[in-house]
Specification:
This protein has 177 residues and is mainly α. It has one domain (10-161). It is built from eight helices and two strands. It has a two-stranded antiparallel ribbon with strand order 1-2. A hairpin with a 2-residue loop joins strand 1 and strand 2.
Length: 177
């Protein structure tokens, strides 16, 4: 099971600070309904998969003790490889973050198809009456959406669901009659 400990996000609305609450099961289904209405389920699923990808490299940084056993030539080669790996990691992380932000923005821009589902979700998560969520500033709405996307709740839910799915997704051969 995912580690669900995280620092809650706080947003300010009309001078009052609100904490974005943890998602409950009802909120997860509300969020999924919004994704479906916005037509970005696939993009969101890809983002969740991207969050699981730590590195696509087979390079593993070594400890200082391990490096100390290297010759000077080996240390030089290791340092070069480490620098290449770190540069690639930064690029991959930047790309992953860009996809996450793009998905959050797509969600926000596509939300008119799911507007009726958004207000109850926001109301629950920031403890405001539903009518007041309709007038929160757009930048605060984006902050809340990013908090939802980055929180471990959704990812944990989808990862738990994945454990229930069959591992082998082979398509059975077509039959001809």
């Amino acid at each position: 099971m995912e580690n669900l400990v995280h620092e809650p996000v706080k947003v300010t609305i009309n001078g009052k600070q609100h904490t974005v609450k943890r998602l409950g099961l009802q909120n997860v289904f509300q969020f999924i309904r919004i994704l479906k209405s916005a037509g970005i389920v696939h993009q969101f699923s890809q983002m969740i998969r991207d969050m699981d990808v730590k590195s696509d490299s087979d390079f593993v940084p070594l400890t200082a003790e391990q490096i100390a056993e290297f010759s000077d030539d080996e240390k030089l080669k290791y340092d070069e490889r480490l620098a290449e790996w770190e540069a690639g990691e930064v690029e991959r992380e930047e790309e992953r973050q860009e996809r996450m932000i793009q998905t959050a923005l797509n969600l926000f821009m596509s939300v008119e198809n799911a507007e009726k589902d958004v207000y109850p979700l926001l109301s629950t998560l920031i403890d405001l009456p539903e009518a007041e969520t309709k007038v929160i500033p757009p930048d605060v709405a984006v902050e809340i959406i990013i908090a939802i996307v980055k929180a471990p709740d959704i990812k944990s839910f989808f990862n738990a669901i994945k454990t229930l799915l069959p591992k082998d997704k082979k398509t059975p051969p077509a039959t001809t009659n």
